[in-house]
Amino acid sequence: MVLYVIGLGLADEKDITVKGLEAVKTCERVYLEAYTSILTVPKERLEALYERPVVIADREMVESEADEILRDADKINVAFLVVGDPFGATTHTDLVMRAKELSIPVIPIHNASIMNAVGCCGLQLYNYGQTISIVFFTDSWRPDSFYDKIKQNRAIGLHTLCLLDIKVKEQSIENMARGRKIYEPPRYMTVNQAVEQLIDIEETRQEGVYTKDTIAVGLARVGCPDQTIIAGTLEELVTADFGGPLHSLVIAGHMHFLEADLVRTYAVNPETFNRHAVILDH
Amino acid sequence: MVLYVIGLGLADEKDITVKGLEAVKTCERVYLEAYTSILTVPKERLEALYERPVVIADREMVESEADEILRDADKINVAFLVVGDPFGATTHTDLVMRAKELSIPVIPIHNASIMNAVGCCGLQLYNYGQTISIVFFTDSWRPDSFYDKIKQNRAIGLHTLCLLDIKVKEQSIENMARGRKIYEPPRYMTVNQAVEQLIDIEETRQEGVYTKDTIAVGLARVGCPDQTIIAGTLEELVTADFGGPLHSLVIAGHMHFLEADLVRTYAVNPETFNRHAVILDH
């Protein structure tokens, strides 16, 4: 039959499309990918609307048990649910490729993801450059290859969407060494943490790609009733309160004045916004 | 009450989200923006599922009759339906700003748009640069400012999503001059036309931004059962058959080998693909 890869959108169980809901109700087994993004509701809410039990699929399961996920999918329908759009993360590619090897048709059902929903902050989607990922720094590991990408984007005036790190089902080094399957509580990077790391990297690299006064926009829980959007200088965003996860960040490039008019409505301080925003009048 | 701005997704009436469907059913008046994109089904299909009459809103109506669209929206709910995601096009900004002036709450409901669904071609979304629009050339008007943007993207190895022109409810110069409200049949730019114009502009500008051998991916009717994806050199795509609208095009930048593995499955000719693709092995 079919492997449906169904985008769930951004917020809750009702962000699935009518087409996606009809598809999931034809499936004998339903998996939810739960390690690259999260919804704001527990899986029981999904199960109630979809009228199906939902199995949480962690990274280990998707990467090492693809054949179990695809079991009998030549005879029955299987659904693999993905927060956002099915093509937002690379991690599902292996599953899709494996299905193709087994001659199981794969039908994706699209949905909103942060990659397009970020348009709600007022910065137009066609003015974004490459998207970057910011991961949690540790004492010994401070990956900063994103700095060069921000540099490239800003050199030509483009905005930069920053996806912020998610740590789900991580083991401590001690537990990993001892082979104990004990997991740390999930961690979701906040806009505040991301902005601190960005300021930190600029202080190390000193290439003047951005400053503490560069305008950025933080977003939290996009698509939820309590969605929060706050614009300000990087320094202002260090202390802005965005509430719970998920958070995203956009470093603004040059803004068309219509973009600036919208973003300003979210500014911590319209005066500092006007002082530091790079606004084009055409 | 509320102005809902509801994304419809890409293909047909069932691409609306469950949340969007519930919202539209609370609305006394429902408008469909029908000039920046189209679905593949007539409005009657929408009306049947949404159980509401749907008024087609053309550009003139949205731009000059915002107050009529918003009439009584302090007392009733009004829905403004948008193909794709609500924030995909700038043209609705005026309506949203007008609603805010009138203190009418605006609730957007997100959905897939070509800006994120294009990930289905195998080129990863985070490797795209700025998006460009290619409009129909006329004898006297050949706008090519997109050429510089492609140049900027390609200089740093990024892919370029090209949105292709749509002409709906256009008047001929003669009819316009005579004040006759007679409209030309709608026109949708094909991948073939876009690629011809791109080759044409390179021949004029001669800055070597791309060649006839540059690899690109054409997409048609993304999200529909008859979705078509074809990869090849620009020259190969001049004659590839994509069928009916809507079409989009991606000019490939540097490809990670995993991206190339996926895109190659859509290639007109895997041999020319391998010869001309720029593939990174890390």
Automatic annotation (TrEMBL), chains A, B:
Gene3D superfamilies named in the record: Cobalt-precorrin-4 Transmethylase, Domain 1, Methyltransferase, Cobalt-precorrin-4 Transmethylase, Domain 2
Domain Tetrapyrrole methylase: start-end pairs: 3-237
Catalytic activity: 2-[(3S)-amino-3-carboxypropyl]-L-histidyl-[translation elongation factor 2] + 4 S-adenosyl-L-methionine = diphthine methyl ester-[translation elongation factor 2] + 4 S-adenosyl-L-homocysteine + 3 H(+)
A molecular-function term among this protein's GO annotations: diphthine methyl ester synthase activity
GO biological process: one example: methylation
SUPFAM superfamilies to which the protein is assigned, alphabetical: Tetrapyrrole methylase
Keyword S-adenosyl-L-methionine on entry: yes
Binding-site positions, S-adenosyl-L-methionine: 10, 85, 88, 113-114, 164, 222, 247
Keyword Iron on entry: no
Keywords: Methyltransferase, S-adenosyl-L-methionine, Transferase
Signal peptide from the UniProt entry: none
EC number: 2.1.1.314
Pathway noted in the entry: Protein modification; peptidyl-diphthamide biosynthesis
Described function: S-adenosyl-L-methionine-dependent methyltransferase that catalyzes four methylations of the modified target histidine residue in translation elongation factor 2 (EF-2), to form an intermediate called diphthine methyl ester. The four successive methylation reactions represent the second step of diphthamide biosynthesis.
Family from the record: Belongs to the diphthine synthase family.
Record's protein name: diphthine methyl ester synthase
Gene label: DPH5
